[in-house]
């Protein structure tokens, strides 16, 4: 019965927004509701005002901080406070004739309703806001013992390909934020840096497909905002997790939190070891009659060993009830050892083996990342009037060394000269940000802010090679270089939102000025000569980025949303470094310093419907992008010392890209022991453009779908199955086959629910392989790549002073760059 009363009151809180003010004097009643045993705030708790005749006059719910502010006609009331799974509390005979702040209410758990809490928690796996969807990673059993990169692969609308590149709705230009702010921890469009963080460090992931003006304009696909854990529970609490797996992997991660009335100290620390054997096959058929050996087949075996350590330590100090200062420091250290063996077989025009060559690359990487952050927040009142200020400094150092040994094994054994490469990368980044939020009246809100992001990256690349086998290593001045890159972005924004009955809107405008500088220091630069490469560059541009989001509530369980935003895609990193990779003589990747930024305009129409056991979300979206990036492959006209044509992959601006898509997601809980969810995303994009006289226009239609089933078995055992399928796709030159993968997981609570044993199998059928066919006028290339085979992981988690209840209020934090209007 209690849950039905809560639903009725929740509905009343929304309906009250649309009511016209009457003649009766109204007063504002404020207060806070917390959990009695821990002091944790209770979000979405209900507050009801009953008059002396026993009629419920109005009601409302608490916000993310457990606070409420409700307008009621002046009079005498009984005030009732409820939250599902907790005992009801009432305040009798309250004479409310003026604005009043009621005493803080502490609700105690109702032991008879604990089972109901768990069921409710399992259904709250997604929250829908005006411009984003929020997913709680902690409920996914398959992420036990995994890292953040693995966890993102299970978020609806998100895909992570074989190379680790992240895409949102099939578009790889996605901006990744940590706690609402840019961070080198996240990188850009890749999970490489994120692999150092355990999945257990995530509280939730926000998928922002129609970002408001508050967020960076970077990322034409949208934004993924990763919110890390920071407990709000009073006292000392924490957890520790260990795991072991095959292929060989192991790790230990712990988090601890100490919270008092004046401060909150939190720490997450983890260490991990992981082996990732991978395989690849490349088959290049050259069409020119002048090539002696027109068929080259390369088989690549890679053994990658990764070791990482990370720790995040912070303290939040409450200067007053409304003001706090948070200081945090993050450190991560990674040490990777990789060995890649590339066996190349060349066949003559009669399909006879002519040459067999073995190329082995040993690569060692030492990576260290430091980040320091300060956050200040003051709340002028309890209605959302606040000021936030942030400062962040980051320093990342990555030292890479690799040695390439090569020998011919057929028709004669011949040891070839070796190469030794060192690459020292340093990145420094500063961020300064200030945000001001001012509610206007009952339903309106104004925001304004500034963000400055300043980064500098230096890559010191040196290639030494033997002129003859066994000889001394001599520096290659043609390719050795120092590449310095600076990116400075200054932005200001303002936005305004309001609510009229069932209609809400949020309109904003962001101004960003960007400066990009690149400079190469080298003694003798010899690159592949063409118009695409300018070694030094200095570019700046200013852009306006409007955003507009609408919501119309058909009823309290159904709404329609419409969003528009303009975004930018800036070239960076590997995409603009003009010096080619050296992992293969015949297949190289080369950056393009002549890349210009791409701009996009996007529209998103969404629909949400909730039933008692089912939630449906759908979206139709359209995006028009100019100067869109595309990776093309071409014959450079150069050959290896052994006469093999060199094929390079080069990113370029390809005129326009029009993208249209549809996505749908379902959360269904047909029974207390069964929870189902699934999503489907269909998209089509049309690329138009040419480069070096070659037309690369293409139309690509593809889709991906994922489903998950979680079953509660007897003896407190949970079983989860995840399935993902990515349909076939194509781009300007290549066709990609579909990919199917299935993950399984089991977990059991032990030690009075204070500990959990978990077992998961990733890629059960060992089918997560990318197969690609590329066709041009001069060659045909086929490839198959698998980054990591089927893996098995066993984990053990122990919690102290924590109850295994997934209520939202214990996991929320306010470091997500502000809540939405």
From TrEMBL:
Domain Outer membrane protein beta-barrel: start-end pairs: 379-798
Signal peptide: 1-18
Domain TonB-dependent receptor plug: 145-223
Entry annotated with the keyword Glycosyltransferase: no
Keywords on record: Cell outer membrane, Membrane, Receptor, Signal, Transmembrane, Transmembrane beta strand, Transport
PROSITE patterns for this protein: TONB_DEPENDENT_REC_3
Membrane topology: Multi-pass membrane protein
One Gene Ontology cellular component annotation held by this UniProt entry: cell outer membrane
InterPro entries in alphabetical order: Beta-barrel_TonB_sf, CarboxyPept-like_regulatory, OMP_b-brl_3, Plug_dom, Plug_dom_sf, TonB-dep_rcpt-like
Gene3D superfamilies linked to this entry: Carboxypeptidase-like, regulatory domain, TonB-dependent receptor, beta-barrel domain, TonB-dependent receptor, plug domain
Renumbered residue ranges of the record's region Disordered: 802-821
Any Pfam family matching the protein: CarboxypepD_reg
UniProt keyword Protein biosynthesis present: no
SUPFAM superfamilies: Carboxypeptidase regulatory domain-like, Porins
Subcellular location: Cell outer membrane
Similarity annotation: Belongs to the TonB-dependent receptor family.
Protein name (Swiss-Prot/TrEMBL): Outer membrane receptor protein involved in Fe transport
